[in-house]
């Protein structure tokens, strides 16, 4: 949970920087920019940023927060907003834009309740959309970027049956492609993007929409893949990664009763964003092939070109590297590969040079591994892969056994220390 909170804070920081830069550099030549949110089926504008020499201003309707209560008014005043009739506003000269953005983001998060900038949409022309990099569901088609919007579509619909839901999904994604979605031989809608292949489908068992993405195919090292899946799931709240057969897959399950068209487009954009941030060397580390290198998928259906969706991440790659284990830990694992307790505490202490700091460090590292494999087992339970569940649980148990060994080694080191003479 902490990793998700850190990632959310990082996303808000990036959004804040980009909004500040846009208002400082582009607002003079731009039309008013509106931030919108479709949360709770609302499509109204949350805030509008404008320029009227010599000031930049932001305006928010009093009902944008959902209710014009005294507590809302107190919160807005505490943030520093001014109030006039049915609107809140704040105006600054260009050198005060950072303060204005701070107030705006504070209201979005604490008053309106926007959990993540991915839930925001931007209306204000291509320059504003490109500068702010808000992940509105867009798709590049023949060199032109088409906004995935449908002006006449209903906000929410309760599907009568699966056929009705299939049609609703087609209608929701038609503005994304610019035409009715082309399906593969399984009836799924393939969406291609750099670094990812996502298939949109409707399960036969319940009213829902499944988004499944291929991350790595033809995996050769299953243990490396299971470990990578566990690490990926640490930092993913909505998307579940799992190993099925020889493929690393990602899945997002979206309930669809009622069915909300904009939610499908937003979740598709989010899915593509998450897959784009998967470490580029994952295929190499697992002995497999990247999704973009699996050319046979391209022959299944011509799903159109990839999306114009941009990731919130400023830099490619990730810090989730599969670092080599310390030499001392590798020795202990080789001495007791089955985790049966075959290594005596004094032997483990000797391997660790009777260094209590090193032993503590190894315990922490083993605890991280045990947590990762336990998390992978929980993710495997969702996919129903019995072999994967068993493998993850065995790995978690092995690391737990190593932790116990290291703790006995630490006790051995502590007991062998010379005692202080009593006074």
UniProtKB/TrEMBL annotation:
Residues 324-413 form the TY-Chap C-terminal domain. InterPro entries: TY-Chap_C (IPR054342), TY-Chap_M (IPR054343), TY-Chap_N (IPR054344). Residues 312-323 have a biased composition (Acidic residues). Residues 285-323 are annotated as: Disordered. Residues 163-293 form the TY-Chap central domain. Residues 11-120 form the TY-Chap N-terminal domain. Pfam families: Chap-C, TY-Chap1, TY-Chap3. This is Putative sensory transduction regulator. It comes from Mumia flava.
């Amino acid at each position: 949970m902490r990793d998700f909170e850190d990632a959310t804070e990082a996303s808000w920081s990036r959004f804040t920087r980009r909004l500040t830069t846009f208002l400082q550099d582009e607002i003079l030549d731009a039309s008013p920019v509106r931030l919108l949110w479709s949360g709770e089926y609302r499509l109204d504008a949350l805030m509008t940023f404008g320029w009227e020499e010599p000031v930049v201003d932001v305006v928010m309707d009093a009902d944008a927060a959902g209710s014009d209560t005294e507590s809302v008014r107190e919160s807005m005043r505490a943030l520093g907003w001014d109030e006039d009739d049915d609107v809140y506003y704040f105006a600054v000269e260009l050198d005060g834009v950072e303060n204005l953005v701070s107030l705006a983001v504070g209201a979005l998060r604490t008053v309106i309740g926007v959990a993540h900038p991915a839930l925001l949409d931007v209306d204000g022309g291509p320059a504003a959309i490109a500068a702010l990099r808000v992940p509105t569901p867009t798709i590049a088609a023949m060199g032109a970027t088409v906004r995935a919007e449908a002006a006449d579509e209903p906000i929410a619909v309760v599907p009568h049956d699966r056929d009705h839901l299939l049609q609703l999904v087609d209608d929701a994604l038609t503005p994304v492609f610019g035409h009715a979605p082309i399906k593969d031989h399984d009836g799924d809608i393939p969406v291609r993007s750099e670094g990812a292949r996502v298939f949109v489908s409707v399960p036969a068992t319940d009213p829902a929409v499944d988004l499944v993405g291929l991350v790595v195919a033809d995996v050769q090292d299953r243990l490396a893949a299971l470990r990578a899946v566990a690490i990926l799931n640490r930092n993913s709240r909505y998307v579940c990664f799992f190993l099925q057969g020889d493929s690393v897959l990602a899945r997002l399950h979206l309930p669809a009763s009622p069915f909300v068209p904009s939610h499908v487009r937003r979740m598709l954009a989010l899915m593509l964003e998450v897959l784009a941030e998967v470490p580029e060397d994952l295929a190499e580390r697992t002995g497999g092939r990247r999704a973009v290198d699996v050319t046979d998928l391209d022959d299944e259906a011509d799903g159109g070109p990839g999306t114009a969706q941009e990731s919130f991440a400023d830099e490619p790659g990730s810090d989730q590297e599969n670092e080599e284990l310390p030499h001392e830990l590798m020795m202990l694992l080789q001495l007791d590969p089955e985790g049966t307790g075959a290594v005596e505490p004094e032997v483990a202490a000797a391997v660790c040079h009777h260094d209590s700091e090193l032993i503590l460090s190894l315990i922490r590292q083993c605890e991280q591994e045990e947590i990762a494999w336990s998390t992978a087992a929980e993710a495997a339970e969702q996919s129903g892969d019995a072999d994967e569940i068993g493998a993850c649980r065995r790995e978690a148990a092995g690391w737990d056994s190593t932790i116990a060994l290291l703790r006995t080694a630490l006790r051995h080191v502590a007991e062998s220390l010379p005692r202080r003479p009593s006074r």
